[in-house]
Amino acid sequence: MSHDAVNIEGIKREPVLMHKHAKFCIRFLNLLPARLASHDSTRGAIAFFAVCGLDVLKSLSLLSNQMQKDVIEWIYGGLVTSLEDGQQSCCGFQGSRCVNIISNDEQLQANAKCYQWGHLAMTYTGIGLLATLGDDLSRLDRKSIVDGVAAVQRPDGSFSASIDGSENDMRFVFCAAAICHMLDYWGNVDKEKMYQFIISCIRYDNGFSQYLEGEAHGGTSFCALAALELSGQLHRLDEDTKENIKRWLIFRQVNGFQGRPNKMVDTCYSFWIGAALRILGAFELTDYEENRAYLMETQDNIVGGFSKWPQSTTDPFHTYLGLCGLSFMNEPGLAEVKPSLNMSMRAYNHLKHLHAQWQAESTDDKFATKETPASKLNSDDKSTSDTSPLIKAQ
Ligand SMILES: [Zn+2]
Questions:
Q1: Which of 53, 135, 199, 343 has its CA 20 to 30 A from that of 301?
Q2: How far is the CA of 101 from the centre of ligand 1 (A)?
Q3: Mean pLDDT, 10 residues at a time, over the chain (394 residues)?
Q4: How many Å lie between the centroid of ligand 1 and the Cα of residue 210?
Q5: Measured in angstroms, how far is the CA atom of residue 252 from the centroid of ligand 1?
Q6: Residue 257 Cα, ligand 1 centroid: separation in angstroms?
Q7: Could you tell me which residue ranges the Prenyltransferase alpha-alpha toroid domain spans (predicted)?
Q8: What are the sequence ranges of the domains in the chain?
Q9: Are 270 and 322 in contact (CB under 8 A)?
Q10: Alpha carbon of 208 to ligand 1 centroid (Å)
Q11: Nearest CA among 334, 317, 336, 332 for reference residue 13
Q12: What is the DSSP letter of 187?
């Protein structure tokens, strides 16, 4: 290695190149490289990895106030709010702006509108990014967004990504739980059915699969456990089940972590498996030095960023998740990460502050006995209904 290694307690350790990683994150906020053009439809998620990466690097101040405002405005530019009478809710954030047509042609606008709907992963990363940049979310109609989440819950309790129909599996169960938790409102989302779906996906080897009878998977296991925690249902797993899940997760460590038995180690699983074990309070049972050593092999020492494997191409996804994986091991200089939301504790505390504010406003409204959009929202668990407006499988 061309750079200096630091020596901590007699162990040679490669340094995390904080400044290079920060520059790498900023680069993805300014432009999307041609090789990633096909990812334009998930650009909101790329912005989330870049901004949250800067946050975990404690380097958000490298973005000027104007740049932060511009990113916030760009995210709000993807918000789908309006709903034609009689249509199902499709509120939420889009990942791309390619169907936002600027034109005076009303017919063209109406046609484009047919292709605008929220996507759960983009809504989760959009709200997470806004919270990370300190936005007060006052421009969001929380009820409409959660109506959009409830509208894509399937009869088996799982969720699709969007109203237009898509795969329905554990990834979107996590996104749904994260959105409702961040907005502190569950509306017509059926938490009991969601729980039953999650439990039905525990496999014979004690990992979770994407859907019924699939193969147990590390990313999916994170999604399942995080959704249980965020919906306040983690305690429903009995101790034996939790111990068995911990065992499956811990056995995914090779040096770094693999996502499934007999698969190659990959940087992102230092987050997926690490966060799952953090949620279960068992991360300290893993080998930190081996995990860190693998992650450092995937660090690009020239332009920053992390890749999934050593000597392969870096990307914002593995960069952010690699940094989070290092944060779980208390890497000096990195911010603390809340495992179940995949964002910094600082951003999560900002959300908790907003929740307290919303609850106070709701209480004030009740005392004043006037009905406002805020007072109609009830963050109480009783708001969960058994009659979610489920869409038919398409
Ligand atoms: Zn990966």
A1: 343
A2: 34
A3: 48 88 96 88 95 98 98 95 69 88 88 88 98 97 95 96 90 98 98 98 98 96 98 98 98 98 97 98 98 98 97 96 98 98 98 97 70 44 34 27
A4: 16
A5: 14
A6: 10
A7: 18-343
A8: 25-189+351-366, 201-335
A9: yes
A10: 17
A11: 332
A12: T
